[in-house]
Amino acid sequence: MMFGIHIMNLEAIDLNLLLVFEALMDERQVTRAAKRIGLSQPAMSNALTRLRRTFNDQLFIKTSTGMIPTPTAQTLSEPVHLALSKLREALDSKRAFNHTESRRTFHILANDYIEITLLMRLLQTLRARARGIKLRLHRPRNLFEPPTASELTESFDLAISLSPNPLVLDSSARSELLWEEGNVCIARKTHPLIQNKLSIKQYAEADHIAVFYKQQGQGVIDTLLAQKGLSRRTVVHVPHFTTVPFAVSETDLIATIPESLAKKFSKQLKLQVLPLPIAIPPFRLTLLWHERFHNDPAHQWMRNLLIEHCR
Minimal CA–CA distance to 254: which of 239, 229, 271, 269? Predict the structure, then answer.
């Protein structure tokens, strides 16, 4: 049995429908999926009808934000991807990936800090070397936790995870450390209490703006301050890094952000960039992908391009 879900004869399945299924799982939209595999939209809709009949399930539910896979589709996703990946590997083992002709869309999970410091430079390179390749960026739900193996299998080609600690990954996930980066404190140049230096007392007593994602509790900075018998007053929590420098530039708030982001905005927004008076772990930028993509020539090309931009 190929899938372990329905008792059916493999010979009864049109294997071309598996390409349709894979495209719909990756693109979550009929028109884009049709374009990806070279079908007209009516032909794609017809193929989806045949898929639903074959597996006796809706497979994909249309919503205002795209096609949502059913539990049956989620269960089918990994074995279908693995089977097609093995087949492609066998058929394409002697054929190099031609990035100048590719029309592939890469789904990348990353926050806005990574978009600004890395992915915008990557986009410039793609426009120069591979204009047909597209990026579709997705926002992580949590700031420091990597995606699950199933998310890497079903939803994203690549993820760039931001973590101060070594990642604990599923055995099916592959990873590559891109870089480590320290943090700094920023304040506006006309801040009434902070000028050119920052004591731990000033840091703890100042009003802060901080980046927090959903369902996160106390952060590492608050934990470290508490160990010293101190606490800070965070008056604004935001889910985006790029909001922070603008808020600091127009208020007496201070913030702790990655050094490269601070330097990028310091001149434009007239910010002080100050060493932190407390030692906190650096950010670790780690590239993640599922093992099913590991030998895919297009995926290898994109991974190497990302790594090249980090060196």
Answer: 271
